[in-house]
Amino acid sequence: xxxxISADNVTAMLQTAVALIRDNEPLLSRLDSVxxxxxxxxxxxxxxxxxxxxLGEWDKSSLKSLLHGVGWGMMCIDGGSTGPLWGSLFMxxxxxxxxxxxxxxxxxxxxxxxxxxxxxxxxxxxxGDKTMMDALIPAVGAIRSAADASASISDAMASAASAxxxxxxxxxxxxxxxxxxxxLGERTIGHVDPGATSMSLLFKAFSEALSAxxx
Amino acid sequence: xxxxISADNVTAMLQTAVALIRDNEPLLSRLDSVxxxxxxxxxxxxxxxxxxxxLGEWDKSSLKSLLHGVGWGMMCIDGGSTGPLWGSLFMxxxxxxxxxxxxxxxxxxxxxxxxxxxxxxxxxxxxGDKTMMDALIPAVGAIRSAADASASISDAMASAASAxxxxxxxxxxxxxxxxxxxxLGERTIGHVDPGATSMSLLFKAFSEALSAxxx
Amino acid sequence: xxMKKFINDPANLTVELLDGLCxxxxxxxxxxxxxxxxxxTPKDSDxxxxxxxxxxxxxxxxxxxxxxxxxDISVVGDIFAAPxxxxxxxxxxxxxxxxxxxxxxxxxxxxxxxxxxxxEMAAEAGLNVKMILTHEDIAPGADAPAEDKRGLVGCVxxxxxxxxxxxxxxxxxxxxxxxxxxxxxxxxxxxxxKIATNPQNGGEIGKIADDEMEIGMGQHGEAGxxxxxxxxxxxxxxxxxxxxxxxxxxxxxxxVLLAINGSGATTxxxxxxxxxxxxxxxxxxxxxxxxxxxxxxxxxxxxGGFQMFLAKMDDELIELFGAPCDxxxxxVK
Amino acid sequence: xxMKKFINDPANLTVELLDGLCxxxxxxxxxxxxxxxxxxTPKDSDxxxxxxxxxxxxxxxxxxxxxxxxxDISVVGDIFAAPxxxxxxxxxxxxxxxxxxxxxxxxxxxxxxxxxxxxEMAAEAGLNVKMILTHEDIAPGADAPAEDKRGLVGCVxxxxxxxxxxxxxxxxxxxxxxxxxxxxxxxxxxxxxKIATNPQNGGEIGKIADDEMEIGMGQHGEAGxxxxxxxxxxxxxxxxxxxxxxxxxxxxxxxVLLAINGSGATTxxxxxxxxxxxxxxxxxxxxxxxxxxxxxxxxxxxxGGFQMFLAKMDDELIELFGAPCDxxxxxVK
Lengths: 215, 215, 333, 333
Ligand SMILES: Nc1ncnc2c1ncn2[C@@H]1O[C@H](COP(=O)(O)OP(=O)(O)O)[C@@H](O)[C@H]1O
Ligand SMILES: Nc1ncnc2c1ncn2[C@@H]1O[C@H](COP(=O)(O)OP(=O)(O)O)[C@@H](O)[C@H]1O
Ligand SMILES: [Mg+2]
Ligand SMILES: [Mg+2]
Ligand SMILES: [Mg+2]
Ligand SMILES: [Mg+2]
What we know:
The complex is a heterotetramer, with two copies of chain A and two copies of chain C.
Chain A: E1 5-6, H1 7-23, H2 25-35, H3 40-57, H4 63-75, H5 82-97, E2 102-103, H6 105-122, H7 133-148, H8 153-170, H9 194-214
Antiparallel strand pairs in A: 1-2
Chain C: H1 13-24, E1 29-32, E2 36-39, E3 49-56, E4 73-79, H2 85-95, E5 101-106, H3 109-125, E6 129-134, H4 155-167, H5 172-183, E7 186-194, E8 196-197, E9 204-205, E10 212-215, E11 227-229, H6 233-247, E12 255-262, H7 268-284, E13 288-295, E14 304-313, H8 315-322, E15 325-327, E16 330-332
Parallel strand pairs in C: 3-4, 3-5, 5-6, 12-13
Antiparallel strand pairs in C: 1-2, 2-4, 7-10, 7-14, 8-9, 10-11, 12-14, 15-16
The complex binds adenosine-5'-diphosphate (ADP) (2 copies) and magnesium ion (MG) (4 copies).
One adenosine-5'-diphosphate sits between chains B (32, 36-37, 39-40, 43, 79-82, 85, 123, 125, 131-133, 178-180, 193-196) and C (80, 109-110).
């Protein structure tokens, strides 16, 4: 059996992410109340609820439509920065998925790159700016490297998860240059960015879902 | 020398009261913040400041004008219940003083009774209602009894002071039936009334001023 | 600990705040002698004048409702303290006219004492004044004697209605009769969750436990009918409106004015929730909310809580309530 | 510990508060689809429409300024969260007209992201919309790049001025030019003393020591330019207005609009003191306070503090500012 993931796998990955992010609502809000307005937990819960709803309503037609449903659903939450950015991520991934029925590791890297590009069309934040990008960019990079090295999908996702976690952790040392935290300046140093944290949870969940598939 | 008090004595008595009440501003406000709106200290400080101003502006013409000036001055402060009631007390005393240049104990009793009557034209509160009346009525009664028993003025005032203090203390056991505290009902029991406390300070000061005169 | 307020010398609070108010709204207000706030453009002298009094510290409060179709002159006291009787008399004299003066007084010990002194002086001076006392607080029970019932936010819609009647050229007797009809058909209940700080001395007024609230509070958060655990907006609104409805004798088919007056720290967000829930209870009882007020009218520093007000309305009262007016904090086009 | 707020299910806050607002002011507002607040009587279709967006939790806030001579439609998000882009697009489409739509956006990350998405969709659909971004917070420095400067209370007078210009029948280009002129000549600084509580989860936003305050705060009390000891009203006002004056380049002989926007728990009493002190500093510099606003426009729950706003005014702006308008929380006769 070729090493690919189907729409059903993606559904399972997303369901794991929904649960993990829900569990972490208090953490995410607490982080946001230090450097922002205290609502990132609520925003992420709305986002994953929208994703869950889209999964339920998916017409099973294509991976593209699955990802589009999730992205549009997230785009349609009232979630401050979260809705547009997460919505863009999945809508970009949907576009990247094209007509594929399943994805091998290289295709997966392309899908994530398309998602990242769409996010970047909304945000100019780079690694080091203390945003979700500090988790997302290295994670996508890790999948690309793994694909180029012909690694398995689950290894690719494991390395994405660890890159995202490291990236999120590293935001503690950074000064925020985007979002509400920007105005806090130096005082953001020492605090982990909430958006980077939720993004790293996404990859953690994806990786866990994939290793669960194997066992 | 006959046992009388002159306008100068009254001035000295009032000056002592001004000082004593000023010193007790925090206590009076604290008591009022339990059963009222926390401003009785401020109201009494305004009242005694008005009295002090009247003393300074007194034209030395008569005891009546001295007391009238004090009463009108107090009446003209913005002091919630305090201004009208204390103003009435002194304006009533002024009327009671008539054309007398000095007062013996019997005349003093009459002056205080006239003051009390004027206060009672504004307020229907009686002993037991947990107001300044719980200090004022027994104090005036003590002066009357002392006068009827031919006591000295300073003894009369000493017994007024102790009657007022006892009356004020007794308010702790009462349920308020007048003023803002009325709505607190049973919950006022256990707390001394601020207005009774300030009134008892007046008689305490008067008595101290008179005994200072003697020594 | 420093007080958490932006103030200067606590002794100058009232003078400074009135100066700020009257310069910010100099097109509408004019400050004559220290604490008398008048309309910048006086009302025609052939119309009944509306005069009122009250302590400061409750901003926007009475003086912010001085203007066309509302109050003609507001006599302002010091923080939480009624203005003195002679000053109130001065205002009555200033507004005296053949058409007469309606003098609106809220039932609070100090206000009533000052008002009585002013009315005695007015009688001696032969002024043409009629006094009306608001006492719509039903915390002591709807049937409690009038002396027990404090005057709360009800004065504000009363100014509006009396002011509109006066502006329409009605006689003093007519204005008085209309105001009294409204006055006799209104009720208020207050609730608090967080206490206020006296801005003159930093003292906290009353006490409320962290998980409690109290219904039946006075204008300053003087304790009411006893504390209870914090309730939801819906339950709080229901508990309060269900006491107000019988207090004004409203029944199916009646029309009412429903007002929510924020105490200070309670947000407009919460007030809208409370309004919504109360209106729903009214609607379920077949009572129509014909007029509404939601906002901060009479506050008490940063207290958390609100007053819920209900009045029975007839067609004339509804029309007067909706008539044009123009004051700093209430304008109807 | 229970939150000291009158609420129901925190998930329903926005829906419930909008329902309360729109029923209380049903003569002025109408709620179309869940979170779009429109004028009850729509503006003539040959006039430019004003559209805006913002999160809830800042009541009275944007939707309370929907009305004649102000906003035509306000798209409301959830607590502290911008409404989503597709919803904003829906509003733009609903208001689309030959005369055009002025779309006013406050500079906050989420608002801008949603607005950009809506504008992309509007461009695709061929709608006639011009967007204007307010960013008058000078906390990061008056010369900081526009992206750094948050949009604070300045949007409210901007709605007033743009709304009046639209009502006067000016073209979209004219309305835009007027609004942009005002936008480029305004500045705000916020200060906080007491923090706000997020009403959805009870979390406290930020931290302020008992004896401290902080200037330069964001709309939610996100920390500003660093804490300092509590200052008097006069000193606070002076420190703030002295930064605002050079930020708008006001000099002797200029006319300004001075606005004090209360954050929630700060009383009108304090706001009047602050207004008075700031106006005095302006007067001493020979700058005339031609227009004033003192009140709660954009709050953030029960935060203690305020925003001080200053804008340079010319005769046209002054006239537009004073033109009639009619919304729940701002009416000019
Ligand atoms: N321009 C941006 N680009 C990328 N990420 C951003 C940007 N602005 C904000 N973020 C992310 O969003 C997170 C905050 O999200 P959230 O609290 O939901 O939105 P809001 O700040 O509107 O309340 C931040 O921690 C940051 O990671
Ligand atoms: N009707 C009344 N008769 C006598 N004393 C009264 C009356 N009302 C109030 N008081 C007294 O006034 C005191 C409160 O005074 P103060 O705090 O200055 O006025 P306010 O209640 O208007 O704030 C009470 O403690 C009580 O002793
Ligand atoms: Mg946030
Ligand atoms: Mg008192
Ligand atoms: Mg008082
Ligand atoms: Mg937010």
